[in-house]
Amino acid sequence: MEKKIGFIGLGNMGINMAQNLINAGYHLMIFNRTISKADELDQASITKCKSPAEAAKGVHAIITMVADDEVLKETVLGEEGILKTLPKNSVHISMSTISPETSQLLAKHHTQAGNSYLTSPVFGRPEAAAAKKLWICVSGDQQAKAIAKPILENLGQGIVDFGETHGGANVVKIAGNFMIMASIEMMAEAYTLAEKNGIDRLKVAEFFGSTIFNAPIFQNYGKLIANKQYEPVGFKSALGYKDARLAFKLSQASEIPMPAVSLVHNRLLTAIAKGWGDTDWVEGIGRGVTEDAGI
Amino acid sequence: MEKKIGFIGLGNMGINMAQNLINAGYHLMIFNRTISKADELDQASITKCKSPAEAAKGVHAIITMVADDEVLKETVLGEEGILKTLPKNSVHISMSTISPETSQLLAKHHTQAGNSYLTSPVFGRPEAAAAKKLWICVSGDQQAKAIAKPILENLGQGIVDFGETHGGANVVKIAGNFMIMASIEMMAEAYTLAEKNGIDRLKVAEFFGSTIFNAPIFQNYGKLIANKQYEPVGFKSALGYKDARLAFKLSQASEIPMPAVSLVHNRLLTAIAKGWGDTDWVEGIGRGVTEDAGI
Amino acid sequence: MEKKIGFIGLGNMGINMAQNLINAGYHLMIFNRTISKADELDQASITKCKSPAEAAKGVHAIITMVADDEVLKETVLGEEGILKTLPKNSVHISMSTISPETSQLLAKHHTQAGNSYLTSPVFGRPEAAAAKKLWICVSGDQQAKAIAKPILENLGQGIVDFGETHGGANVVKIAGNFMIMASIEMMAEAYTLAEKNGIDRLKVAEFFGSTIFNAPIFQNYGKLIANKQYEPVGFKSALGYKDARLAFKLSQASEIPMPAVSLVHNRLLTAIAKGWGDTDWVEGIGRGVTEDAGI
Amino acid sequence: MEKKIGFIGLGNMGINMAQNLINAGYHLMIFNRTISKADELDQASITKCKSPAEAAKGVHAIITMVADDEVLKETVLGEEGILKTLPKNSVHISMSTISPETSQLLAKHHTQAGNSYLTSPVFGRPEAAAAKKLWICVSGDQQAKAIAKPILENLGQGIVDFGETHGGANVVKIAGNFMIMASIEMMAEAYTLAEKNGIDRLKVAEFFGSTIFNAPIFQNYGKLIANKQYEPVGFKSALGYKDARLAFKLSQASEIPMPAVSLVHNRLLTAIAKGWGDTDWVEGIGRGVTEDAGI
Q1: Domain ranges of chain A
Q2: Average pLDDT over residues A207-232
């Protein structure tokens, strides 16, 4: 009974997360704009729904993993939105990368409807989602966390609690994505400096990635940047730019000048303007650096 | 016999390195502008010298670990410089953070004098030097590397070879220090964003430092930045600024626009202008971020 | 008959513009949030109104000069907004500094209501408004321009037509305000450079203002910046920041990386964060430059 | 007798200045690296010299207008430099765009030699030089100014005195060139914003150039930028970059963070890296802005 939950958003991340929940024995009430995407999943474990409202009917929890603030707001507040049907005392587990402002707005609506909203964005690329290696940040009510916990444990390697403020975990997610972009920028600059001085880019990347910068960000991205290996596209420049905008907007709302955010924002805006929106963000940033350097 | 080497520069790094060489059985011909600094070392294992030339007399290798390009040039080319006495076939192991330009200039002079120059800057703070945990980057002639290797093995946990170009290892060192500064900047911005949104700075730092950014740079500096813990001073803002200038100058010489270098350069120049030159560079950067944010 | 027009917004600019219209023989149907402000005007020439709708009733033209996009949207589209009463074939002369997006939205509503919308922002400070020295940029329908022309001629020294696109004149206004901010920034940097090198700031400002930069922006602001004369407050840093945000948002929407916009945006965001929102924008920028320089 | 002066440097500026001096009745002792350039001048009024020393022999004044600090230092201090022959009490009128540091160094040498050094850089393009419309900034000893005055009056429309510090006028010149570059950048950004929003670039440039920005910089450069008219080359991007470097170096030496200087520096460094060094600086900057905007 308790094993039936709603699930909205079968993108590169969502499809892997859904699979893990099915593996754990959950039955998913699925809504996706392109519902044929659900054909990849075990049909006995899912019910295809025609709207968010249908996916939310009768479940004690529903997960959303969608593109951006606007889509999420429509998914919750729209005519056929979650709020229309989600039972009292159920929880909406909101895993998309969105602004804290939107989380606060939606939390208010859920509270008024007698159910609850849990902010729970994740760190990790699709491979990490498939391997249950996501890092999940949560913030919100204790009760919502309690309901969500057994579900989220099937999706990642750790759940970190950032308090009760609904937007809290969004801030951490936005900050983290900014730090990843800034890391890509700094590596692109540094490795191009090496290249122009006759030093092997990859050798430098491997040195840093195995010593003072021996973290996944510098190891995995470092290799891609060093090799100018821009295929396959893991995360699009257009999505990176969306996140840079979120970071910039948050810096405005928080009244914090963040020059490094401006830098990566402008780098990715340049990528968009040059028509590179569909490239991997490593290309969007890395190629910007090398083209400006005349190589 | 072979165990007698020259050693110039007993700063925070040099004193620890000298101690490790003594522990390994070397006798050091030491020159330091403030020679009383040598009193901290075992007197039986050292000879205090009155000039670089005296320290270089009769040794097969001499290490320099001094403040900057100008001091090093004076140390080598000055009236009482190393070049006056260093025996043929000996090697000058140049471990300071300097420009590749200076390495090339000095290598030329050493070659003309019949001895050799090995670029070998290091990564690591004084504690790492004391613990023999430095990472040593080398570039230059094979013969020089062969002579230096048994000596350098007493100073660090790894020696990485960046080829035969004399300035090569300097470029890697400058790139790495830039990456550290940029990391401090991005953490300072991100954690201040968290703070202004009611999230605990340290909690965020610990999360990133134990997950996607689990590298020493983000763990050690991350904690200092999160706690605004600016004492004791490990590496002065004035020295960080010196390194930012080296990076900027190299970006000019290499014809690579490096906006992240401009950013950290201007951040540290602001610190200098505000009179914070003697603070730790974590303060020079971190306090700049928080003051601009009005906290 | 035709001499009765609506007028909304008695701020520093509006009050001077209203006075000039009264001097030209117009009777003004006035709405202002703080209606007591209208006491400064000749009571025989005005009618105080309780809502935008009341001010728009029976007029062939209505001028709005309000704080920002949100206030203007409420003024037009709100429950007691202009649209409720403005007669067919009348024109809304929209003189506030707002985004082109808002102009396009409002123009659509006016067209549907059978009347028209004329974008007509102005360049000039309150003194220029009082002296009928404003420069007025217009864009929109020819018919609307024809109706507005005899009215606008009482407010400025020139009306410049930027075509039929409703947002066109807004883009020019936003671009111009950005150029003013960037000019203030460059002067602040240059004159501080002079000061730190022992040269009189004012002498430099007067030299440039009377030779290659002999334009009002460099003459008037140049003197204020040189003298660090920040009183009286003519245009608040908070308003300058609002305009920097408009410019930044427009650069995003237009997909143009504008690093100089980022620069002035962050300078004014710093001013806001430091609590200088109510200072003149010359102080917001100029003091930021000198404080960063340690003076 | 007094009408014989030395003249070194027949570049685009120098050749026009030399012509004006000849027109005023002076006989010029000319040195230029490519001496054939002097063939364009009235041969009866000049003496071609084989070295700076020869040009300085027996004159009461000598003008230098050369490429950069290095060339000027060689011209004065070199083996066949001015200092070898310039008579006591004569004055070296130094009109090149150089650093204040170099002026101070040369002034010291001249003082030791019993003659004097007058810093006197100019504002104006070659056409202005030809039309005697230069603005001349001077700094240095009163005596030197008195000797130079009757000579300089034949070259420009005004001489402005910036005090006795030798580097003073250099600082003003560097600050001014920075302001011109920053103006070109801001116009390029603003007019590209107009273009992408469907507004005629030239119309916007003409509006600003005839109203609030009605100064030569915005009128002349404004038209070139608006029309993307990059030929003929008046002032090369490589020279603009040289001046941006001077400004940056001076900001370091003066301990003033100047973000607008960083911006134009990086813009021109990008131009150099992309191989546009020989284009006009309007192209170096303007094309950088449009390419980043994808047009």
Answers
A1: 4-165, 171-292
A2: 97
Dig out the tokens for B235 from the structure. 């590496």
How far is Cα C152 from Cα C157, in angstroms, rounded to an integer?
A: 9
pLDDT digits (tens, 9 = 90+) for A171-193: 999 999 999 999 999 999 999 99
Q: What is the pLDDT of residue C1?
A: 45
Give me the pLDDT at residue A167, please: 96
A66 in Cβ contact with A9 (< 8 Å):
yes
Distance CA A232, CA C271 (A): 44
Chains in contact with B via at least 3 Cβ–Cβ pairs below 8 Å: A, C, D
B187-235: per-residue pLDDT in tens? 999 999 999 999 999 999 999 999 999 999 999 999 999 999 999 998 9
Neighbour tally for D168: CB within 10 Å: 26
Q: CA–CA distance from C161 to each of C106, C108, C172, C174, D204 (Å)?
A: 19, 20, 11, 16, 10
CATH superfamily of D171-292: N-(1-d-carboxylethyl)-l-norvaline Dehydrogenase; domain 2 (1.10.1040.10)
Name which CATH class applies to C4-164.
alpha beta
Chain A contacts in chain C segment 266-295 (CB below 8 A): 266, 269-270, 272-273
Q: Is A125 within 8 Å of A151 (Cβ atoms)?
A: no
Q: Which two tokens stand for residue A136?
A: 């999940």
In what helix (H) or strand (E) does residue C174 lie, and over which residues does it extend?
Answer: helix C168-196
CB of C188 within 8 A of CB of C285? yes
Alpha-carbon span D280 to D295, nearest angstrom: 19
Count of pairs with CB atoms under 8 A, one residue in A, one in B: 183
Class of domain D4-165: alpha beta
Of C245, C255, C269, the CB nearest to A269: C255
Q: Average of pLDDT values for B123-143? A: 96
Residues of C in contact with D254 (CB under 8 A): 193, 196-197, 293
**B258 touching A, CB under 8 A?**
yes
pLDDT of residue B1: 44
Q: Which of D162, D215, D251 sits opposite C214 (nearest CB)?
A: D215
Cβ atoms C289, C185 nearer than 8 A: yes
Which chain C residues have a beta carbon less than 8 Å from that of A245? 252
Per residue in D98-135, pLDDT tens? Answer: 999 999 999 999 999 999 999 999 999 999 999 999 99
Q: Give the mean model confidence (pLDDT) for residues B24-31.
A: 97
What are the tens digits of pLDDT across the range D144-191?
999 999 999 999 999 999 999 999 999 999 999 999 999 999 999 999
CA B288 – CA C293 distance, rounded (Å): 12
Q: How confident is the model at residue A122 (pLDDT cuts 50, 70, 90)?
A: very high
